[in-house]
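Data deposition worksheet. Section B asks for the primary sequence of the deposited chain exactly as it was used as input, without tags or linkers unless they were present during the calculation. Section C holds the resulting structure in token form. Section D is free text for depositor observations; keep each observation to a single sentence. Incomplete worksheets are returned to the depositor.
Section A, Depositor: J.P.
Section B:
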Amino acid sequence: MKKKSLLTGLILTSCFWANAQYNKVAISPTAKIVSQGTKSAEFTAQLMGEIIPISVDLKWKPFLIKKCIKHHTENDELLDQIKSQKMLSKNNSSFKTNETENSAAAATVTPVVGSNFLGNTNTGNSPLDNSVAISNGGKIVSVANNSIEFYNTSGTMTFTNSIDGFFNDPTITNVCDPVVIYDSGSDKFIFFAQECSGASSNSSLLVCFSQTNDPNGNWWNYKLTGNPVGNSTWFDYPKLAVSTNELYITGNSFSNSGTFQEALLYQIEKNNGFIGGNLNWQYWHNITSSPFTLLPVSYGQQGNYGPGCYLVATSSSGASSIDLYDLTDNMSASNEQLNHYSISTTSYSPAADGNQLGTTRQLDNGDCRALSGFYLNGLIHFVFHSDYSIGYNGINYNRLNVSTQTNTSSKFGLTNYEYSYPSVASFATTTSDKSVMIGFGRTSSTLYPQVRVVNCDNSMTWGSSTLVKSGTGYCDYTAIGSGAERWGDYTGISRKHNNSAATVWMNGMFGTTSNNWNTWIAEITGTFGTTGIDNIYKSDNFKLYPNPIYQEFKTEFELEASSIISIAIYDLQGKLVKTLYSGFANTGNNQFTFNKSNLEIGTYFMTIISNNKTLKNEKIIIAN
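Section C:
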């Protein structure tokens, strides 16, 4: 039996902000519906239990994870052909030293970096798939492959664990692609991860709802099948959004051999998730145009909208159109539809892979799928990346007018540089102001991978980008043969809704001296005027909160069967220095990392023991 949600259950406790709810706009009756998706029967997800966040040591940060599989694209062969052609264009062009970004001479807003600090450190995975959310109360949740961490706005970490450790569920053999969102209408967090072993038999969606607005408190935990159609497929590339009454999760389904099958949309009544009740849900499939990644969009400022949800999709291999999907109503309406509209836009196509300073290893620039977006005042704002110039990647920012079915797009970039994996958030204090902040990664043959941010104002005028975190080394630790190192797949961004001045928080990947990825978290505000492209802007409210230097030690080991293991550090006299881990480990290839900067100068041994058998006894030398 369906349960109707009560809006009274969504009233915010904040004395500064009311829980505003907004209606969707009417689509022109002359707009042509190309087709409609197929709705499933309704299902119920039972509450799995309660998660009590138990942090590992905040200084040592010992993480044991199972290594993730490589993602697939919609059409690997076609994308490789396009990228190869674009690489020829890049190789045949000369490096241009006198060009600048395509920003206006007198931009309205220049991004300012406020509080900023080291976030999720590397656990052996690539890419990190960064995602971040901040509550009105200033609680930050930052996630990456494979860790989840909580901070306050001054950069003090209050919780850290691997995502495996957060769930503490031995039936989950591998997790990846974490996503976190703050539901401002409910004043609570939603955390998602997926079981990602690449097999339909155990493909699962792991969904957690915070019980309060403090992520350090308890969470309600649910598990949904990643193969709802029952056609031997598994789920990947998740996207999340919320409306007034529902949670939407989209993803791509793949066969067990790794071939893309179709996009899926999960429609979930969210309110029971916040109180620990059972979840009513349904899914949509047979979605026309065969979108590779459907992007659902939440409301861009304080509150929610509805009923139903808007979604957009771009063509991963390029096109001159985009797809708009309108989920017309809540699942409690019983007559809801998923209507598909095709909208013309400026043509776009993928870029070649990107170069890095100090190595011939390239970074994977992915494809043209929609990455991030929001809905506000009749417009869907969304971003992806595409060829900016002669094979170099650039930001592709779009404003889609839902009523008139028209799209306006603008690119931002710089020849000889890659501007990749953008994320977008409203940077305005009124719903009529269309200004946005866009976080992204940048690399080139003259610099290490870095994190940046740029403003596009109400009139769609670009400012100059601001450096958020510079790279200190190139990345090369998971690529195979001559293949590219993974990058992205996402940069995280979240608006701080109750600040008097427009403020967003973001997280992204940067290259390290260990030649892998780490995460940087930053608060972004803005000032009027422009400055140079590579400046870090300083003001009276600029604060830097560096964490202690993180020096990663990592080791890999393989288990023939799942077992309880112990990982410990001993000095040369055999005295126990620190037990880093004691618990369950999965079958197959595992990787363990910890922060070795807590060790004093000297020689140590790290032992891994399983069933009274020593799997590893590895020497660690700490020098000046």
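Section D:
The first strand starts at residue 21 and ends at 23.
The chain is about 5% helix and 45% strand.
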